[in-house]
Write a structure and sequence with these properties.
Number of helices: 11
Shape: globular
Number of domains: 2
Structural class: alpha/beta
CATH topology of the largest domain: D-Maltodextrin-Binding Protein, domain 2
Radius of gyration: 22 Å
CATH superfamily of the largest domain: Bordetella uptake gene, domain 1
Largest sheet: 7 strands, mixed
Number of strands: 11
Mean pLDDT: 89
């Protein structure tokens, strides 16, 4: 208990009550909403959708700031060191979260220095090939690569990116050899595969499915347990003959680690409300993604095991960027 003296009167107020006080009127000024990737990608799109709704509902600006570089670790580093008062928050993804483990040292801990606020969306990935690859389904692709190891090249948005790590997991499970060609971002990796400069890539459905419909890419299998509503004709890995392989990208909001729990809870509730709106639900569904609301505690509990899965792949592959 704390002793409060007001006008000569002495009263007692619990520390729990004081901890809740910052959230009563939050926010009372502009919130800096840091995005770990450039404009135009799914991380940026989701941040802008949410930021607009939060600004409307809370009557304060949520200003998007794209802090790019080093696979999102620059943005993470800034937010980890920000004042933990709710006025600096981060839109991150699987890629930017696990990127810290690709470096020998980082000035922050991905699990200890951030307060998980809410999971925003989970997007499935899929295996795509250039039409010149003589494989119409996953089993034909596996047979082709086993007959000609290292004959094909796979593109990724960069060493240690989700596209790289998912492919490495897949290649190890089915015992294939395909040469890795890293690019600086998802767009150039996709462009190279569409042009036939590389022949294979794992990518989100939202990015590459339009190219499938245009005949510029061929889709072999989606990485989720169920078929994606955004591409219902694409089989799952299990349906295509590779059981036990699942991988999805998540996008989520974080705050600095010491942010008061009431502020984190308020952000969680307001973002959950925004994500439940039909227009945002439709936008997320159009990407093949889904939103299943979790409390900060539920999200934090799921984050640890998910992180360890990716860290294990990094260890196995020896992926590094420094």
């Amino acid at each position: 208990m704390l002793k409060i003296i007001t006008g000569g009167l002495v009263g007692l107020i619990s520390t729990a009550t004081l901890a809740q006080a910052p959230a009563v009127n939050y926010p009372v000024k502009t919130v800096r909403f840091v995005v770990a990737f450039p404009p135009g990608g799914p991380t940026d799109l989701l941040a802008r959708l949410i930021g607009q709704k939060l600004a409307e509902n809370l009557a304060q600006p949520f200003v998007i700031e794209n802090v790019v570089g080093a696979t999102g670790t620059i943005a993470h580093g800034q937010v980890a060191k920000a004042v933990p008062d709710g006025y600096t928050i981060l839109m991150a993804s699987t890629s930017s979260h696990v990127a810290a483990y690709l470096y020998k040292s980082m000035p922050y801990d991905p699990l200890k220095d951030f307060a998980p606020v809410i999971n925003v969306a989970t997007l499935p990935m899929a295996l795509f090939v250039h039409p010149s690859v003589p494989a119409n389904n996953l089993q034909e692709f596996i047979a082709l690569v086993k007959a000609k190891p290292d004959a094909l090249n796979f593109a990724s948005p960069g060493s240690g990116s989700a596209g790289h790590l998912v492919m490495e997991r897949f290649l190890r499970q089915v015992e294939l050899k395909v040469t890795h060609v890293p690019f600086k971002g998802a767009a150039p990796a996709s462009t190279a595969t569409i042009a036939g400069q590389t022949q294979v890539l794992f990518d989100t459905i939202s990015t590459s499915w339009p190219h499938v419909r245009a005949g510029k890419l061929r889709a072999l299998a989606v990485t989720t347990a169920q078929r994606s509503p955004a591409a219902p004709e694409m089989p799952t890995m299990a349906e295509a003959g590779v059981s036990g392989f699942e991988a999805s990208l998540w996008f989520a909001v974080f705050a600095p680690g010491a942010t008061p729990a009431p502020i984190v809870a308020k952000l969680n509730a307001e973002i959950s409300k925004a994500l439940a709106m039909p227009d945002i639900q439709a936008r997320i569904a159009a990407t093949g993604g889904e939103f299943i609301a979790k409390t900060p505690q539920q999200f934090a509990a799921a984050l640890g095991p998910d992180t360890e899965t990716w860290v294990e792949v990094i260890r196995e592959t020896g992926a590094r960027v420094d």
